[in-house]
Amino acid sequence: MIELIKKNNLLACIYDIRQLKSIPPQDQDWFIDEVLPLLLNTPIRKVAVLEATNGTGLLDLNQLVYSKYLSIPFELQYFEDVASALEWISKTTPLDNNPLVSSRQRLASAL
Questions:
Q1: Are 62 and 30 in contact (CB under 8 A)?
Q2: What sign does the CA torsion over 109, 100, 43, 18 have?
Q3: How far apart are CA 67 and CA 69, in angstroms?
Q4: pTM for this model (two decimals)
Q5: Which contacts (CB < 8 Å, 24+ apart) does range 81-90 have?
Q6: Quick one: which of 102, 80, 77, 101 has its CA closest to 91?
Q7: pLDDT for 11-54, tens place per residue?
């Protein structure tokens, strides 16, 4: 995933958790300890999360990440459909115009 993001200079992605029931604590720790630091070194600026419309088994990435960090270096929004998520990520600004850059740099240096 990280290689794909870097190779294609992706600024945004969609994470589909509509079929996901729950994430075990050890996987949550893995995401925070292993994946998030790697994402800090990518051009990702927005993550759109597709969630189930019935609200069961939701993964609150904000709560997961905020449990260890004060903020995440990319925007995170939840959507019920792909069209809305695509519309939101289509408005992603490049790195040099993005106000999250200084936040990303501060967080990366803290790790």
A1: no
A2: positive
A3: 6
A4: 0.67
A5: 81/50, 82/14, 82/50, 85/14, 85/48, 85/50, 86/14, 86/48, 88/46, 88/48, 89/11, 89/12, 89/13, 89/14, 89/46, 89/48
A6: 77
A7: 999 988 888 777 777 887 888 788 888 888 889 889 898 887 76
